[in-house]
Amino acid sequence: MAEEAVVEEGAEQKPKSKLIPIILGAVGLIVIVAGTMLATLYFTGFFKPKPPTLTAEERIALGLDPDPEAAAKGGEKGKDGKDAKPEKLKKSPEAQRFDFNYFQMEREFLVNITGSKRVMSIQVAVMTRYDQRVVDNIKKHEFALRSAMMDVMRQSQESDINKPEFRVELAKKLRDAMNSLLEKYEEFGGVEDVFFTSFIIQ
């Protein structure tokens, strides 16, 4: 009877001894996979701190491209085979300052002044230091731009006209409206200043 009890106990212990190597093998495999993943992340620079972000002025002062995204993308092309975003124009490759690109919108803007019988008639020119694509985008979306700009002008009131800074403020509002709409349709504004080549209130 005692021998049978010993045999039965031994029979129960054999399956347990087979489970130990399987468990150790599974744990070892998990350790290897986790180690491989951590090593891959380490060597790809995942754990390295990101470099500090510089402003456009600081990048220009250091002789770097003022648009870090454009510099990082480098050769990325748009649908038409050109660079994804317009680039700033330099007078020469060695020049530190960027060239200016002007464009005058041909048709005048004529709107009624809110709360008044007077009308405002203006002609507008824009300035950009980016390439011809900004001007092409303005021409392409001229109807939408004119509508947005006239909405801004219609918000002017009789009391605003007599303020000394009225024209400067209006130019900024028109620039912001243009850039907002161009960013919506082309993902890039580029209009840096708006100038009045004709400004009549009567």
Write a concise synopsis of the structure shown.
The chain is of the alpha+beta class and 202 residues long. It contains seven helices and four strands. It has helices spanning 2-43, 56-61, 68-73, 132-140, 142-154, 158-161, 166-186; strands at 101-104, 109-112, 119-128, 193-201.
User: Approximately what portion of the residues adopt beta-strand conformation?
Assistant: 5-15%
Low-confidence stretches: 1-7, 71-76
- N- to C-terminal separation? 123 Å
Q: Give the overall pLDDT as a whole number.
A: 78
Q: Helical amount among residues, as a percent range? A: 40-55%
Q: Your description of this structure?
A:
By secondary structure, the chain is an alpha+beta fold. It has a domain at 87-201: Band 7 domain (Tetrahydropterin Synthase, Chain A), CATH 3.30.479.30. The protein is 50% helix and 13% strand. The protein contains seven helices and four strands, in the order αααβββααααβ. Strands 1, 2, 3 and 4 form a four-stranded antiparallel beta sheet that branches. A hairpin with a 6-residue loop joins strand 2 (109-112) and strand 3. The longest helix is centred in the N-terminal third of the chain and has 42 residues, at 2-43. The model is unreliable at 1-7 and 71-76 (pLDDT under 50).
